Amino acid sequence: MEIIKGDLNFLLDTLEKQQAAVEEDQVEAQVKAILKEVQINGDEAVRRYTETFDKIKLTNFKLSEAEIETAYQNTAPNLLRALEAAKENIESFHLKQKQTGFIDAEKTGVIRGQLVLPIETVGIYVPGGTARYPSSVLMNAIPAKIAGVKRIVMVTPADPAGLPDSLLAAAKIAGVDEVYQIGGAQAIAALAYGTKSIPKVDKIVGPGNIYVATAKKILFGQVAIDMIAGPSEVVVLADEQANPAYIAADLLAQAEHDVLARAILISTSEKVAIEVDAALEQQLKTLPRAAIARQALANHGALIVVEDETTQFALMNEIAPEHLEIQLVDPMSHLNQVKHAGSVFLGAYASEPLGDYLAGPNHVLPTSGTARFFSPLGVEDFIKRTAFLSYTKEALAKEKDAVMDLAIEEGLDAHARAIQVRFEALD
Question: Which residues bind Zn(2+) per the record (predicted)?
């Protein structure tokens, strides 16, 4: 890979030109047609699109409890142990996010408060395509369970060879209530509108391809969503002490996801950048998904050398990466320089795959710079807050004039009268 140097503006311009060029208008038109068809024709449209895109004719969308149990029993013991270990860590982390309501009764005659209530029905989307992700089942479903969601509905693209046992085992372990073998924009439409066979949900979470992301974007308002997820990405910050082999391995861990993945090194050491480039070539020789990784690195990867740490963090914060690795001396001391990142991995031994699978923080993260305003998926994504208040007549009497003055200022006389009528007998 070419090593890139320059000032901050040049580097930002170079990275922007690397971004995937996608015919968004064309994709949106295709997705809108799919959504409309599913809204009108329901199961029939879902079945037809599944046959067209996934090359499988489905009699039933929903998998039975017996099928899920059989898959669980067929899953290798070591994988079951790994899934259970991941579940334990994901639960322990997300339990700390659980919120409670409050009651405020500080003023005489006034009670205010907030209820924290779970969303009742949630759909989780688990991607298919070139890889399957049982870890995504855990990351989506476990926070929902902790929040108290009553019905968790999982959708994932059908496969002519059948869904992997580990995927269904993860659904059982995570407490998913229903599994449907449908994917793509048609699955998002089915969850948003509901069909005869597939339940309508209140919120859809989980990453997917551009068609899934576009469907979620269009249907937002009809149904709640978590975020608009794009291709996976990592930025590694390194100094002269960093290990090039570790960095190369972590860059490839992202690049192997798909050809649109972004893997970027920002280093203050040109020597480290050169050694990382050599390590990438060496490790690619034995990587099963080398073709995907090579294309991702060629089109969306970068080895960047900057003059100082200030530029290093300024560039990273402008990128606002999904995953950020800080492989610098005393990495914890740099945490306060992070403004925009989905998840941060500190030090040489906090490799990003730990976050993907086992450590506990969620791996459903904002991408494509949206870490500036989106957060990782968490328990708070599966709750809603409802405020409540109670006033005695005496308490209202103290506030009535201020309420009426504000209502009249806004030209809303009925608002003012709704307060006034309660005191007309006294006046």
Answer: 254, 257, 356, 415
Q: Is 357 part of any known ligand binding site?
A: no
13 is in an annotated binding site: no
Span 24-228: which CATH code?
3.40.50.1980
Topology agreement, domain 3-20+231-360 and domain 24-228: yes
Which member of 256, 323, 352, 363 is catalytic?
Answer: 323
Catalytic residue status for 322: yes
Domain chopping of the chain, boundaries: 3-20+231-360, 24-228, 392-423
Here the tokens at position 14 are 């170079």
Identity (one letter) of the amino acid at 243? N
The pairing of beta strand 102-104 with beta strand 323-327: unpaired
Question: Buried b / exposed e across 25-58, counting CB within 10 Å, b at 16+?
Answer: eebbeebeebbebbbeebbebbbebbeebbeeeb
pLDDT category at 409 given cuts 50, 70, 90 is very high
Alpha-carbon distance of 68 to 261, in angstroms, equals 32
Contact 322, 257 (CB under 8 A): no
Question: Would you mind telling me the total number of residues written for the chain in this entry?
Answer: 427
Q: Under CATH, to which class is 3-20+231-360 assigned?
A: alpha beta
Is 340 annotated in some ligand binding site? no
Catalytic residue from among 233, 275, 322, 352: 322
pLDDT in tens, 238-263: 999 999 999 999 999 999 998 889 99
334 catalytic per annotation: no
Q: Is 254 annotated as a binding residue?
A: yes
- The model's pTM is 0.91
